[in-house]
Write a structure and sequence with these properties.
InterPro entries: FAD-oxidoreductase/Apoptosis (IPR050446), FAD/NAD-bd_sf (IPR036188), FAD/NAD-binding_dom (IPR023753), FAD/NAD-linked_Rdtase_dimer_sf (IPR016156), MDHAR3-like_C (IPR048618). Its EC number is 1.6.5.4. Residues 7-321 form the FAD/NAD(P)-binding domain. Keywords: FAD, Flavoprotein, Membrane, NAD, Oxidoreductase, Redox-active center, Transmembrane, Transmembrane helix. The structure is a single chain. The chain is of the alpha/beta class and 473 residues long. The strands form seven sheets. Strands 4-3-2-8-21 form a five-stranded parallel sheet. The chain is built from eleven helices and 28 strands. The radius of gyration is 24 Å and the shape is globular. A hairpin with a 5-residue loop joins β22 (298-302) and β23 (308-311). The longest helix has 16 residues, at 315-330.
């Protein structure tokens, strides 16, 4: 018993939806594409789960955030897949894969064969039991990775309104869930081992701003320690968390955000695994020519970093790697290496930040950390390799991405600090007026073509731009 398709997408997350739309745009025939997903709904925009979905008033619900509304494109409901002849195999888990025979076998025993496979299995949330914590399966211990997790979290928040919550972890999920909990009238304590929140990305100075802002909302931070155990009540619910240093924090619920692991298990002994993900080339092609991997599960070369292999955990990467894989499959004669700039963002309360590149090298902070209009550049070997901006405009966010794309040269660090985002705006303006479309299309490593951009920060221009900076910041 089995079915055969030309193209199969394994996984039903963000990447699957964007890959399906790209296949459709490129003219696949009805019946050629199949999407296999363990979830019971069509692909959706996962970022909504930690944002609009958790709002106490007018929360976002499906079908409002099916892909691909995240990029203001079509909303792909179940009906869309049916109309385009795309088979959705939902609520189905694949128990084994054979890349040599081009087959997948489901837990029901069905065999699904393919000519091309796109692995979009994403990642799973790390569980506390993997860290040796007992009773971590209590009903009021929540994670957030998929729709079922989000629904459970909403139910638990409603049952805990006016009470207390402990958030384990100071990263993306921890920070966004803490904001949602406070909005739902729940007092929050965040616990994490690092010296400050978002330690993988934020500098201590940037983190200090967000921690102070969160504190103004009533959120308490307990840093430099970890969860040791739970105190369980007669109703089998967590009543308190016990920390390694012996502290006890009473709580009505626990939210866990301690990281994720890529879902590579089906392919661990068949494809090359590197840096926690399935290794692919610039076409998103794995070590087996008929198999591609995209999104959180893929480790791919970043041209900006000299081809260094990275596995990125963000929706922007999922969307763009998915589209690139489809383009590579459908138009092999035109395929090219993916030229991707790592991009991360977050929106909580009235705050909104974006980051491009990598946070390595010497840090230059700028702006007003009191008003919430500030940013930072990371400089390595006299070139800007990373840029962060809080409270920017769309024009300013685009400008800092341009700076990273060109790895803009910098000679005067003090001047860069004084100019701040104006440096990026001037680079963008000069790039638009001086560079031909041919030069713009060249790969990142051809930065020597942009040496003329250094003139953007000449001493002669300093007074003018610094004056603008004072008015804007």
């Amino acid at each position: 018993m089995g079915r055969a398709f030309v193209y199969v997408i394994l996984g039903g997350g963000v990447a699957a939806g964007y890959a399906a739309l790209e296949f459709s745009k490129r003219g696949i025939l009805p019946g050629e594409l199949c999407i296999i997903s363990e979830e019971s709904v069509a692909p959706y925009e996962r970022p909504a789960l930690s944002k609009g979905f958790l709002l106490p008033e007018e929360p976002s619900r499906l079908p409002a955030f099916h892909t691909c509304v995240g990029t203001k494109e079509e909303k792909l409901r179940h009906k869309w897949y049916k109309e385009h002849g795309i088979e959705l195999v939902l609520g189905t888990r694949v128990k084994s894969a054979d890349v040599r025979r081009n087959t997948l076998t489901t837990t029901t025993g069905e065999t699904i064969s393919y000519r091309f496979l796109i692995i979009a299995t994403g990642a799973r949330a790390l569980k506390l039991e993997e860290c040796g914590i007992r009773d971590s399966d209590a009903e009021n211990v929540c994670y957030l990775r998929n729709l079922a997790d989000a629904m459970r979290l909403v139910d638990t928040m409603q049952n805990s309104a006016g009470g207390n919550a402990v958030v384990i972890g100071g990263g993306y999920i921890g920070m966004e869930c803490a904001a949602a909990l406070v909005t739902n009238r729940i007092k929050v304590t965040m616990v994490f081992p690092e010296p400050h929140c978002m330690a993988h990305l934020f500098t201590p100075k940037i983190a200090d701003f967000y921690e102070n802002y969160y504190a103004s909302k009533g959120i308490t931070f307990v840093k430099g320690t970890v969860l040791s155990s739970f105190e369980i009540g007669a109703d089998d619910l967590v009543k308190a968390v016990i920390l390694k240093d012996g502290a006890r924090i009473q709580t009505d619920m626990v939210v866990v955000g301690i990281g994720i692991r890529a879902n590579t298990t089906l392919f661990d002994n068949q494809l090359i695994i590197e840096k926690g993900g399935i290794k692919v080339n610039g076409y998103m092609q794995t070590s087996h020519k008929s198999v591609y991997a995209v999104g959180d599960v893929a480790s791919f070369p970043i041209q900006l970093f000299g081809g260094d292999i990275r596995r990125l955990e963000h929706v922007d990467s999922a969307r763009k790697t998915a589209r690139h894989a489809v383009a590579s499959i459908m138009a092999p004669e035109k395929r090219r290496d993916l030229d991707y700039i790592p991009f991360f963002y977050s929106r909580v309360f009235t705050l909104s930040w974006q980051f491009y590149g990598e946070n390595r090298g010497q840090v230059v902070h700028y702006g007003n950390f009191v008003s919430g209009r500030f940013g930072a550049y990371w400089v390595k070997k006299r070139r800007i390799v990373g840029a962060f901006l809080e409270g920017g405009t769309s024009e300013e966010y685009e400008a800092i991405s341009t700076v990273i794309r060109f790895r803009s040269p910098i000679e005067d660090m003090a001047q860069l600090e004084m100019l701040g985002v104006e440096f990026a705006l001037q680079i963008q303006m000069n790039q638009a007026s001086q560079l031909s479309s041919h030069i713009v299309s060249q790969p990142m490593y051809a930065w020597h073509a942009f040496a003329g951009l250094a003139a953007a920060t000449s001493i002669a221009a300093f007074a003018y731009w610094y004056g603008r900076r004072r008015r804007r910041w």
